[in-house]
């Protein structure tokens, strides 16, 4: 069996999230696979455009919503450029799911705080829906999301849905200068807003994903709020190629992001030998 051989998926819908981020809704061409494919929140897959190459993205949809597999991607290179040109009905290759996942089972009975910046909401959104679809099993839920400008906000309709839910707290912010005169959300960088919202740290798991600079400045705020390093989880998806622990491209010291991750606690990240 060729472990690099992708399965075929068809693009069922394309959503233009922002000027440079799209979401694909996918289904396997093989109906059996469509029925049997299973994954956990936080796992990733390798997506291929035939003749162009492969790209790594997290699975952005929730395992509790198996009808479509979704991925969101930003245009940044050859493969994503080729993906941008694809239309509904076109075929992609998909290998996966790979990697570890967020400990949703262990999070039951706890408060959950989701913090995301930019397209970092994609892996977080997967867990958000997973948790919301099992709402009664979790305590307080807080979502803090930041984008550079209003136009850069992804999953706009879903954010509105979260905002309308009475039993969760959803705060959206844009960077200073990124707001229009009609903007009703917060203005300020994510760490500042986290400090302002000050989610309680007791019996709480935090899931954080966003640009490195956001993570860097949010971590001290979290620690100040009393979060422990093992209760702050994040996901890395940079630098992966094979997804199988074979190409050696993703390793940071002896840790393979594709096999040991992509989900790590802040405590684990701190032990990694270099800047990740
Ligand atoms: S992506 Fe190839 S070894 Fe991890």
Work out the helicity level.
25-40%
Please tell me the overall pLDDT.
Answer: 94
SS elements, strand count: 15
Cα Rg? 18 Å
How is the biggest beta sheet arranged?
Answer: 7 strands, mixed
Q: List the strand order in the largest sheet.
A: 10-9-8-7-11-12-15
Oligomer category? single chain
**Compounds present?**
FE2/S2 (inorganic) cluster
Structural shape: globular
Order of helices and strands: EEHEEEHEHEHEHEEHEHEEEHEH
Helical segment count: 9
Question: What would you call the structural class?
Answer: alpha/beta
Strand content: 25-35%
Low-confidence stretches: none
- Cα(first) to Cα(last) distance is 33 Å
Secondary structure: elements and pairs:
Layout: E1 7-18, E2 21-28, H1 31-36, E3 44-49, E4 53-58, E5 69-74, H2 78-84, E6 91-98, H3 104-107, E7 111-117, H4 121-132, E8 141-147, H5 156-164, E9 168-174, E10 186-187, H6 190-197, E11 204-209, H7 212-224, E12 232-235, E13 251-252, E14 255-256, H8 257-260, E15 263-265, H9 266-271
Parallel strand pairs: 7-8, 7-11, 8-9, 9-10, 11-12
Antiparallel strand pairs: 1-2, 1-6, 2-5, 3-4, 3-6, 12-15, 13-14
Helix pairs in contact: 6-7
FE2/S2 (inorganic) cluster binds at residues 240-243, 245-250, 256, 258.
Walk me through the structure.
The chain is α/β, with parallel strands linked by helices and 276 residues long. The protein contains 9 helices and 15 strands. It has helices at 31-36, 78-84, 104-107, 121-132, 156-164, 190-197, 212-224, 257-260, 266-271; strands at residues 7-18, 21-28, 44-49, 53-58, 69-74, 91-98, 111-117, 141-147, 168-174, 186-187, 204-209, 232-235, 251-252, 255-256, 263-265. The longest helix has 13 residues, at 212-224. Residues 240-243, 245-250, 256, 258 line the site of FE2/S2 (inorganic) cluster.
